[in-house]
Design brief:
7 helices; Rossmann fold; 194 residues; 8 strands; two-stranded antiparallel sheet; alpha/beta; 2 domains
């Protein structure tokens, strides 16, 4: 495999430039109704989280890339919660994966350009100064990384967030806090290792 071209580098560099997109403000009456609905959903989501409820949605792999004998699958974990990433990296390494991590713009850009490309990306939605949803949308348009499976691993668990993630091309959505066994199963399902 050759290094990524300068055109690919520019696409990713553009990902991290400019201000985040903000949706247009709804009409005042609609805004009040929307805010009331959002508040109700948030309160119910908090109750479910306290009860141990976890969102775990995954799409099984449609194609399974062959793996050379002795080779390991690469997982890129993008999250700004460094202690969580360290624990997750250790656990995934013990499960037989090669793990790379990134928690800020510069590291994310470097890891996305690194070869070999990841076989799977675990992506947080709430990253400092950027949105995991925007990263996902850019990945899906990228010629080389567009087909890399992405599982959103995030504390953003409202129905709107889940819908946004899945319609933006995520292969899975796992809410925090999560059970490692449930995440391991989601990873195997998305990678076609079930």
């Amino acid at each position: 495999m050759n290094a990524t071209s300068e055109d690919d580098d520019l696409e990713f560099a553009q990902l991290f430039e400019g201000a985040p997109k903000t949706p247009p403000k709804p009409a005042p009456s609609l805004a009040k109704a929307t805010e009331a609905q959002r508040k109700a959903v948030t309160e119910e989501a908090a109750k479910l989280k306290q009860a141990g409820y976890c969102i775990n949605i995954v799409r099984p792999a449609t194609r399974v890339a062959p793996l050379a004998p002795g080779a390991k699958r690469y997982i890129l974990c993008i999250d700004d919660d460094v202690p969580l990433v360290q624990i997750l990296a250790r656990k995934l390494t013990l499960d037989g994966y090669q793990v790379r991590t990134a928690s800020d713009r510069q590291a994310i850009l470097a890891e996305l350009q690194k070869l070999p490309s990841p076989d799977l990306i675990l992506l947080d939605v709430g990253l400092p100064g950027m949105s995991g949803f925007e990263i996902l949308e850019k990945l899906r348009k990228h010629p080389k990384l567009g087909s890399v499976p992405v599982i959103l691993l995030t504390g953003h668990a409202s129905p709107e967030d889940v819908l946004h993630g899945m319609t933006s091309g995520a292969d899975g959505y796992v809410s925090k806090p999560f059970q490692f066994d449930a995440l391991a199963l989601a990873i195997k399902t998305v990678l076609g290792m079930q």
